[in-house]
TrEMBL record:
<dbReference type="Pfam" id="PF12728">
    <property type="entry name" value="HTH_17"/>
</dbReference>
<feature type="domain" description="Helix-turn-helix">
    <location>
        <begin position="8"/>
        <end position="54"/>
    </location>
</feature>
<protein>
    <submittedName>
        <fullName>DNA-binding protein</fullName>
    </submittedName>
</protein>
<keyword id="KW-0238">DNA-binding</keyword>
<dbReference type="InterPro" id="IPR041657">
    <property type="entry name" value="HTH_17"/>
</dbReference>
<dbReference type="InterPro" id="IPR010093">
    <property type="entry name" value="SinI_DNA-bd"/>
</dbReference>
<dbReference type="GO" id="GO:0003677">
    <property type="term" value="F:DNA binding"/>
</dbReference>
Length: 65
């Protein structure tokens, strides 16, 4: 699933993987739900941090910001 993505994701890639809007993606980052780096004005999300976030959910769980 994530093999086609780089080790460090941008916000658009993260949102595509999670199937959420960009607005929800930013809310998840600002809330601190997903660890990330801020480089200048852009966010970078290590794939390992996204996986850690995803592992915390039970099957069928809905992602909410």
């Amino acid at each position: 699933m994530l093999r086609d993505y780089p080790d460090v994701l941008n916000i658009d890639q993260m949102c595509e993987i999670l199937s959420v809007s960009t607005k929800t993606g930013y809310a998840l980052l600002k809330k601190g739900s997903i660890q990330h780096l801020k480089v200048g004005r852009s966010y970078r999300i290590p794939k390992a941090h996204l996986l850690t976030y995803l592992i915390g959910f039970a099957p069928g769980h809905t992602i909410r910001a």
